[in-house]
């Protein structure tokens, strides 16, 4: 997956949890809206159920308070993701992505002691679907990303940060990632340039205002936004993305 702006020629627009401004997050409606909106990459959250079925879902807890990881996939199939359909299963989404040539960013959620198991199940499914070249695995758990990269070197990975480490470059190289997702308010151009020098792409996430000039000035490679068409239009006005 080509991520660097220096080779792609544009800032890539990643649809956050699908087009989550336009439809319920991580739902089929959000996926289809992101595709229609022209997103370069569609990001979704992935967790595994008690029977180890990867499901698109963000909160750790289901309505009623139980943990998603403690529920069987049959129970998840009875939920409404907000668009009248159950939360999508990852195998279904991968098959759809394969059919339509969609690039996916899978944000793997494994908090509270699950270790690498969610990464193993997601990676297994990605390989089986023949989607290694169309998937970027993202996570806050850098150990899980390193495990996935070591088991499938062709997989694109992105480490997500909530803070600003003392040495971004060393941290990224230790994790063997292809990209870093950095916080909107904790990034400057020198960080981006240092990461680019070692071939690591930079995504800026958690934007809370539509200030699209800022990522252009920073020189980042990817931005995450919940309405991809809006981001593409704004970036196109600055020569940083083509409009359809």
Description:
- The chain has helices spanning 5-8, 28-36, 73-76, 90-100, 117-128, 142-151, 168-175, 189-197, 213-218, 228-236; strands at residues 12-15, 41-48, 54-56, 104-108, 135-139, 156-160, 179-183, 201-205, 222-225.
- With 244 residues, the chain is an alpha/beta fold.
- The chain has one domain (5-236): Alpha-Beta Barrel (TIM Barrel).
- An eight-stranded parallel β-barrel has the order 1-2-4-5-6-7-8-9, surrounded by six helices.
- The mean pLDDT is 95.
Helical amount: 25-40%
Largest sheet: 8 strands, parallel, barrel
Low-confidence stretches: none
What fraction of the residues are assigned to beta strands by DSSP? 15-25%
Domain count? 1
Principal-axis shape equals globular
CATH superfamily: Phosphatidylinositol (PI) phosphodiesterase
- Number of beta-strand segments: 9
- Order of SSEs: HEHEEHHEHEHEHEHEHEH
Strand order of the largest sheet: 1-2-4-5-6-7-8-9
pLDDT averaged over residues: 95
Instruction: Please identify, by name, the CATH architecture.
Output: Alpha-Beta Barrel
């Amino acid at each position: 997956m080509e991520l660097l702006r220096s080779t792609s020629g544009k800032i890539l627009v990643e649809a956050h949890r699908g087009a989550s401004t336009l439809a319920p997050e991580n739902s089929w409606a959000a996926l289809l809206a992101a595709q229609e909106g022209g997103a370069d990459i569609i990001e979704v959250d992935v967790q595994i159920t008690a029977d180890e079925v990867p499901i698109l879902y963000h909160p750790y807890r289901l309505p009623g308070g139980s943990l998603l990881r403690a529920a069987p996939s049959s129970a998840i199939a009875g939920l409404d993701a907000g668009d009248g359909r159950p939360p999508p299963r990852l195998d279904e989404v991968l098959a759809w992505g394969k059919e339509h040539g969609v690039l996916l960013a899978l944000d793997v959620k494994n908090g509270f002691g699950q270790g690498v198991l969610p990464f193993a199940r997601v990676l297994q499914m990605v390989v089986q679907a023949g989607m290694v070249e169309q998937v970027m695995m993202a996570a806050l758990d850098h150990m899980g990303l390193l495990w996935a990269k070591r088991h499938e070197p062709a997989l694109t990975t992105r480490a997500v940060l909530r803070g600003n480490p003392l040495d971004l470059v060393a941290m990224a190289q230790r994790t063997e990632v292809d990209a870093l997702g950095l916080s909107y308010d904790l990034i400057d151009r020198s960080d981006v340039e240092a990461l680019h020098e070692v071939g690591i792409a930079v995504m800026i996430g958690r934007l809370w205002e539509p200030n699209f000039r800022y990522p252009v000035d920073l020189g980042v490679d990817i931005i995450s936004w919940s309405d991809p068409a809006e981001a593409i239009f704004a970036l196109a006005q600055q020569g940083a993305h083509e409009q359809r």
